[in-house]
Amino acid sequence: MLAQARIALKGQPRMHLARAEIGPGATAGLPYAPGTFDLITCTNALHDLLDAQAALSGLRRLLAPGGQLVLEDFARREPPFPGAVFAWLLRRIERNRVHAYTLGEAQSLCERVGLQVAGGRAFTIDWFWHGWVVRAYRV
Question: Around Cβ 109, how many Cβ atoms within 10 Å?
């Protein structure tokens, strides 16, 4: 994804792309000063975070006022799809603790950490997987 972004954004002088691992702490365990970023994207990671609310709170602190956080992840299927089977499958695929948030849960997490949710959209990936994207701003 970073390689594709570098190609697409070539020639943008203020663009900095980096792979980072989110963790605990005031700035989500990342070595940047609060208010550093106008845009943070977090793709297919929320389900793996042990404390998603703390991590999102740290990402919010990294945003400049008016900065945007774009979250994207896969979603568990809604009933009548058997949730226990889905959770079991995720543990087998991911090999660790996961919580596949629904769009509503992700939006609620953003609001709890003080982000203003500007929009969210669910989409179908294939017959089994669904995904969602949320746009939220630091006010």
Answer: 21
